[in-house]
Amino acid sequence: MGRAKKVVLAYSGGVDTSVCIPYLMHEWGVEEVIALAADLGQGDELEPVREKALKSGASESLVADVKESFVKDYAFAAIQANALYENRYPLGTALARPLIAKILVETAQKYNADAIAHGCTGKGNDQVRFDVSCAALNPNLKILAPAREWGMSREETIAYGERYGIPTPVKKSSPYSIDKNLLGRSIEAGVLEDPAAEPPEEIYQMTKAIADTPDQPEYIEIGFQQGIPITLNGVAKTPVDLIEQLNQIAGNHGIGRIDMIENRLVGIKSREIYESPAMMVLIQAHRDLESLTLTADVSHYKRGIEETYTQLVYNGLWYSPLKAALDGFIQKTQERVSGTVRVKLFKGNATLVGRWSDNSLYTPDLATYGAEDKFDHKAAEGFIYVWGLPTRIWAQHTR
Ligand code: ARG
Fold first, then answer.
1. What is the pTM of this model?
2. Cα separation, 119 vs 192, whole angstroms
């Protein structure tokens, strides 16, 4: 009796997910493995990946192009929430997982599978995101995570795969663990495990070293409608084009590199390197437009919501009732966040240098120090009397 009969496996083409196929069948008695690779714009050739799953013993091998939904439904929502985990990481990996979980569940239902499988180990965040997201979408499906249980070293995993005709990685495999998609690259392991060591230049692919970036600044204009970026330099873009082009443009100026010590949900601190040019620029620009179009109280209150939202996404709770409730709040705040932000890209910095909006709450007559000033200065006196009253009373009683 196996753990499941028919399984849909989240497949990437790497050694671990490939070995999952024979392992599920020979060790855990699974009869049929359907491999599912998600095209999230990682830029890999997915046809060889699809074939590799079949060679590794999958009965069926599917590739789902989910790039558009990834940007529209996940990345743009995160931009509206100005989501930066621990103030820095724009969640490129974390945002992909609930979408992969969604297509795993849909595929399992379509093929009448009784379980879902993934190749995550027991130390990371991704296992949590997959398991919890799948459970939220269909609590009746079992979730199998062979790599969490098999206890094989890298060498043993490769040797196990060879027994079932899975080729040894030809190129000496990179010492880094890399996850990449349209939103960026997440890089860990190898020399990066020493938090004191500067990352070697070779790990970067989307962002230039400052020494190689242009010596002239480049100005770009990003147009938002209800908190969603829709134009670049005045030209309407599809979501995927906008992200791809902005990755190019900002990466060329060395923007979007992040080197941080991060707190994982499972309690481990890890040293992570990210490059995420488009997301970093978009979040900054979006936040700037909010400062022009939201009232002070909404804007300040939203910061707390953003923090909670970011933690929910990082911690695998994308499909949770609290996240859905926060979505309602965030969507309401975005109704008037439309306009344009001008950004100067130069030597690793994206500087916000201008913003304008039909919904701008900026009031020149009130803000100006010039003769046109309409602010009632006398009113300030009474305001301060009332505002400062509790403090004055306190001071009188305690001095
Ligand atoms: N620490 C990041 C996160 O939890 C990225 C993990 C990416 N995985 C990798 N193999 N580099 O979202």
1. 0.95
2. 22
